[in-house]
């Protein structure tokens, strides 16, 4: 009975973790799971519908081919690997930077807090998509620049969430006792403040992951992401929008994959938030 109750309480977490684990494995190891070369073009195989055989060679295209005869499933796997790597790196960088800013602002308070939070307010006043477009226009496209852009647009959320928790943590007795004993501020933040904000940071990172994936896909859709010849989920949606009436799978399938990944991540973040309460 207890095991059943435990399972019911963790169903959301189990489903999301299993789903994300499968997605992570098949995309990160795309060369092992992709049935065909995602870059190989064949004019004899253009617009093959899902679950139909190729015309130029043996084999079945499970998710169809695009306007250049490239296998959609293979491109989805390779595009997912790139999208996930960019999002993970952006979340790690923005999470580390934003958490440090939040801990410093919440711990010291006063003018330091006011200055850092006003900078955060200024950035929050600018729509993330607009800021990303402007930064890509200035820095240029490419994998490194996209990661930098995503990181800069994401640090504010970490900073504000962590700061709000640190404001209450710094008033706890054991923190004030450490300060009274002359423990350096950096040591207090490292030993007492950060460990108590770690779970909040992880929860926020899970939530930000879905935002990063969606923002990266949006930039690729607008042609501002990585090179157009490189498979990406947003780029695949953009490539297929001109053929939506005749080849629905070109845009629909990448869109469904993005929706499924974001839904799984949101379920995981909700489960983590419930556990933290």
TrEMBL record:
UniProt keyword Lipid biosynthesis, yes or no: no
CDD domains per the UniProt record, alphabetical: TM_PBP2
GO cellular component assignments: plasma membrane
Keywords of this entry: Cell membrane, Membrane, Transmembrane, Transmembrane helix, Transport
Predominant localisation class: membrane
Membrane topology designation: Multi-pass membrane protein
Annotated ranges, domain ABC transmembrane type-1: 80-269
GO BP, sorted A to Z: transmembrane transport
Domain of life from the UniProt record: Bacteria
InterPro entries named among the record's database cross-references: BP-dependent_transpt_permease, MetI-like, MetI-like_sf, OppC_N
Spans traversing the lipid bilayer: 12-34, 84-108, 129-154, 174-193, 205-226, 246-268
A Pfam family the protein falls into: BPD_transp_1
Localisation per UniProt entry: Cell membrane
Coiled-coil positions: none
Family: Belongs to the binding-protein-dependent transport system permease family.
Protein name as it appears in the record: Peptide ABC transporter permease
Lineage summary: Bacteria, Bacillati, Bacillota, Bacilli, Bacillales
